[in-house]
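Homework help board

Subject: predicted structure for assignment chain

Our instructor gave us this sequence and asked us to write out the predicted structure in token form, then describe one feature. I got the tokens but I'm not sure how to describe them. Can anyone check?
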Amino acid sequence: MEAEYMALCLATQEAVWLIEIMKNFKFIQHNPIIIHEDNQACIEFANHNVHHAKSKHIQQRYHYTREVVKKGDIKLHIFRRQKIQQI
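My token output:
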């Protein structure tokens, strides 16, 4: 889960950067940016302040996603991969 959570943090940083660029162009954002994540544990960890054995070693800097979700700038959605059928 740690690698996925770190990647989610990087995606969050990119989303916040885009929000700031849009503000510079006087674009008003009314809805949060949706980030699709395929790891349910990452979404739960970012949405709720939960600690468990697998998360105790994650560095504090990667919890930036929690702050941005709480602020309402982004929203996390589960993305389920579907198997690609061969023709």
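Reply (TA_rk): Your tokens look well-formed. For the description, you could write something like this. The chain has a mean pLDDT of 83. That's the kind of observation they're looking for.
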